[in-house]
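Dear U.,

For the methods section draft, I wanted the exact inputs and outputs in one place so we can describe them consistently. I've listed the two proteins in the order they'll appear in the manuscript figures. Please don't edit the token lines directly; just add comments below if something needs changing.

First protein:
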Amino acid sequence: MVLRSVASRLALGVLAGSAIVLIVTGGLMLSHTREQMLEQTRHEAAAIAASASARIQGRIDGVARVARVLAGQLGTRRDQAAALLHDALAVNPEIVAIGSAFIPRDTGAPKDDDAPVARRSPGGRIAMESHRADPAPYWTAPWFVRGLNCDAGCWQPPFHTATRPDTQVGYTIAIPGRSVPVQGVVEATISLEWLQALLGSLDKPAHASAFVLDSDGEFLAHDWLSYVGTRGSRPLLSAVAQGRTPVRITPQEGGRVSEPVWVYFVPIQGTRWTIGLTMPEREVLADLRRTYLVDLVLGMLALIGVSLIALTMTRRLMAPLTVLADRAENVSRGDLDFVLPDVRRDDEVGRLTRAFDQMRHQLSGHIDSAKRAAREQERIASELEIARQIQLALLPAPHWLDGDGRIELHATLRPASAVGGDFYTYFALGAQHVCVMVGDVSDKGIPAALFMARTVTLARTLATHARSPSDILEALNRELCKGNDTCMFVTLLCGVVETGTGLLTLASAGHEQPVLHAGGGALPVDVETGPALGLDPEARYPVRVLSLLGGDTLLMYTDGVSEAHAGNQRLFGTDALLESVSRVDGDATPETYVERVLHDVDAYVEGAAAYDDIALLALTWHEGRTEGVRIDAIAHS
């Protein structure tokens, strides 16, 4: 695969890391630029709205001045109201109607001159009318009531008349009285067509739309004519009421828009009107998106270029490492005969190449040494196997039964390593006696095996001239002490059985006490011991004499049994050995005793490696099971 190479992964990592940096920084720049563009748009929209507000304010201020002048004049010239209204309308062509409405002197019989009105027709002709012709009494009309409370003047809601198709709006101001605070109102009415025309003449972006909103939340003018006379949406009115500009309005929030828009507005001084501009967010940020996409494409192209450069340079730098990787596979296959690339620079790759070459030569030397060591180990193992076979050949057969079937014995040797120092042996002493021995050399391995071989050979030779186990041990001890500069020694338990009577004589040279299974139970045989063989040429060994009855079995063993232990470091011990022997049936063969003890020892150590050599010998006396008297005595030579 392509991504298996370090160069490809490095190039991919550079590409991925740079892309992440580009995306993060691009996102931050986009957010910052977006805020800047929105702020710039806000300033532009505010300037447009402020300019339009100033033009609107200049127009309506003139209307308000006319109404205020008339209110001042009519305060003292009520009877001349009709003439004053006609003259004022004639000199102010932007006004479509000027009227005055006084509180009737007699509401039961109002007169036309109580509420004269001068109106301009669409053709420009001025006609005098009266509010007394209104469907409802004018003094109860909302515009009249509100006007009485407008000492400083106020703009009324827009309305329509039967004589003009356009929307109109009136400015009312209270007429002061001489004896009363207020005696009526003056109303100056203008058409909103000029306001609609003014919105169309504004120098605003092509995608923007302007509007004028009155104090009741209705559109007085709007670039979208269908909105004129309708009420603004709840989000827009809420923003105007709170003075939050600009405000973002979406269809989901209840705005009367098909896409998110930004609305910018400013109040028109002298009125309770508001002029605003609506700009679709898509159009406001269109340039930003285009610029960002172009920058993003250029950035990705730059990243791809950087990644290709990084891939090319990395492959050139990693070429020696590729060779080293191939040579490492050769090393794993055992092939050390190859050529490495020349080292031209003292950089990391160069040092690695030299170190790899040095390692190759050292590894070759170690392999040669290991091969020599393996051959030496094989030779030693072969020699140890031969030594083990020779050692086992020195021992008699594991099982033996005398000619008349009275004495049966079974023995086994289990070295902890290839060869060991434990041993057993048995042989006939003349026609009426059998000698049995179990011993344990102080050391392990080859030295112990050689000392054991010497001991077994000397024992068989010296025993032919001895009268008892004591004599055998004393003679053997003297021979082993000769030339024993290494101070090796051997513990040995020696027994001689009379084949005709079952009389057993035992002597011990520092060895474990044997175990006797008799009468359905097991008990240790207390044999007074002398020192181990090979240490003191003048040592003496007392004997223990006892008679075997039919079915009795004597078990002789080395300390590899009693001192067996596993991870808990607790020894198997004599008590466990006695319990193991006692569970054997009384008529069992000697082999059963040996197997039972070995099985219990193996179960105790739980599969742990053998701690010491083990030698076991079980001797059973098969004389008839008639009751007899057991002889048990200690004798000293």
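Second protein (the one for the lower panel):
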Amino acid sequence: MSRARPAVPGRDRRARVLEAAPGRPRCDDPAPRVAVIGGGIAGLAAATGLAERGAAVTLYEREQSLGGRLAGWPVTLADGSAATMTRGFHAFFRQYYNLRELLRRADPALGMLTGLPDYPLRGADGRCDGFARVPRTPPWNALGFLALSPSFGLRDLAGLNARAALPLLDVRVPQVYERLDGVSAHDLLDRIRFPEAARHLAFEVFSRSFFADPRDLSAAELALMFHVYFLGSAEGLLFDVPGEPFPRALWEPLAAYLTRHGVALRTSTAVRSLEPLPRGGFAVHTAHAAEHHDAVILALDTEGLRGVVAASPRLGDSGWRERVRRLRTAPAFLVSRLWLDHPVAAGRPGFLGTSGYGPLDNVSVLERWEGEAARWAAGTGGSVVELHAYAIDAEADRRAVQHRLLEGLRAVYPETRAAGIVDERHEWRADCPLFPVGGYHDRPTVRTPDPAVLVAGDLVRTGLPVALMERAATTGFLAANALLRRWGVRGHTLWTVPSRGRSALLRALARLSRTC
């Protein structure tokens, strides 16, 4: 007798379920000891998946707080106000099924998230696109976007290279990498002959989500993004954002949940190396101790993973270690947050993607959704504005880039020209994974040559249609499931968007393009 299909976690009835392997409900005593190294989304998902099944988990995080690239820390502004600084805006799309299930552990109703009414995109030529009026279900979403977009007219549609565009209609993983990983996102768009305005607003906005220049990004990743967010999913392109800064809204409640499940949270504790032990297990070396664990999940960013593996010469095999060594990080990005003494005009959206304003890629007006910023703005009569610039040239002068971002803001929202800056904070980072042309097979998988060592994070290749934060959460649960299966314990059910194009006709056309 077949089991009933679990309830779909979103509105898309074609979402793909990944049933967990069956097994015992919990680990036997004594519980296996697992070190989860890295306290970002991937590490938190892995720790959750293991702790809920009775494993003894220690989570090591080198920073003072959890959250990884979504961490936050307290700052005191020039006016004496207490505030929280972060590494910038992140969109929680509705097709992030596994990330949202992780957050439900601490807040089953996801009350910490609030939806923004649109995802507007604006070019310097004045043309604006959005998704609030676009249908969510493919292929009507694509047709609706074409009908409503001022950046993509019938003449542009007639000028497209249909044969080059057809692979986007039936994206499958990992087949998409076999076909497109050797091509850059820029060159794919050239082949398709996308008009310049539509190129950024409809496609390059996805590549910028990877903090990469389209010339350096694998076209397979771009095609996957198009599938996950547009033609492959009926969840749409609208998204949610946390109603308070990341620590308060997300990580402090989840940390309390993990603590109740027995997880030992070791923040401000960097792992230096791992040493496989003769009788099994590993010595996990920090600055002050070496602790024994039966298994390890490496949930680190690119440089962190490279560093731990380089310092652990007996970990894995030579081929795996060399592939880890070759991993690259994306170029630097900048997050500038400004506390202004005058408000941004009331009609401005909470988030705006931009094109043609120098290095400025987007503008957020935080008081539109974040409680802390709203309280500061209400008390001062000002606004809290955040500016992002991605894929910055390594030789660029940082102060000059910060000034150009401010100029971009004043061009987009002219009322800010009269505003004074109460305080400003600038975060320069260069720690996101790069998915370069031809780099797919160098990326680690969840499993390694040692069955007791797993890898999780947004840099991991999975064979699933997931990306960005959802890839991090999914790989964290996959790593936990791999260990649980090894111990004969039931894993966790996961979900993804559909694994192939939704329209039989469009799939047939895509197959035709592969045979021509």
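Candidate sentences for the figure legend, describing the second protein: The chain has three domains: 16-68+246-326+443-496, 131-235, 332-429. The mean pLDDT is 92.

Thanks,
Y.
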